[in-house]
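agent> fetching stored inputs for the adenosine monophosphate docking request
agent> found them:
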Amino acid sequence: MPLLVTGTIGIDTVQTPEASADRVSGGSCAYFAVAAAFHHKPVRIVGVVGGDWPEDHAQLLSSIQGLCLEGLERRESSKTFAWGGRYFDNMNQRETLFTELGVLEEAPPIVPESYKDSRIIFLANSHPSVQMDLLNQFPDRVLAVADTMDLWINIAHDELLKVFKVIDGVIINDSEAELLTNINNPISAARRIIQLGPKFVIVKKGEHGAILVHEDGIAALPAYPLDQTQVVDPTGAGDSFAGGFMGYLAASGHSDFATMQAAMAWGTVTASFALGSFGLEGLVGTTRNDLDARMIDYKRITLVS
Ligand code: AMP
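agent> prediction call returned; pasting tokens
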């Protein structure tokens, strides 16, 4: 089933305790799409960049098989979304240093006619009104899932609640689930979010894995264990988890609880490759064989069959 994603295509500047990277390829939509394309093709991108979008970032996305970039608009006189963040010592927590919305403050990107038969929609992190605008263009969707983050919870709370009313699922960080609900237990926070509209919520807990709260039950999966040397930059791991998860659902054509549990395992394994380098390089340098081998290892480690 065709899978469509909208979100940011961004330029990231990242500091970790060990290293830093300036103006690398990123954005919620970019991480999601590259991760999803391991599992399902095509992944249709709806996004917008400015005239300052670096040529090497463009080449990187164009090199990924199965990504459809017809819905990626370039506005020459505008600025690309840019984000800067700094990780603390344990790499599980970060602070945002700056967010330059750029093109995100303008009209949302136009959805190409050829995308209109998309049935599975992922609203990666972006302004909730952009998410809503996209959703309204797909009345025949079979599954719509959204991510969000602190900025939007703080500055566009009401618009976000409108999105939550009409989507099927939410994938969110533990800290953001707490910010949204004022509840610091991920399961209770997820249940509170379900009361806002969605049928299921996945709470991502960084190196501590992820929890699915669904009307048919609860599932919890650990992260793939990585040592210090393997975690170079956690940026985009959450979006990559969502990409692996949604890509697997789109490929299977199902979205029942058991399929979601399997999809979470693929999301976890896919995300583990995003941590290995700054920017999209970690995912781009990964092969299908790498993914399959790590899944075998993950099942051995977790005793998941
Ligand atoms: P993650 O580490 O999975 O939360 O995703 C980080 C990615 O999201 C980075 O590549 C950023 O460019 C992008 N990003 C950061 N802040 C925002 C925001 N407020 N809205 C959309 N995307 C964002």
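agent> quick read of the result: The chain is about 35% helix and 25% strand.
agent> awaiting further instructions
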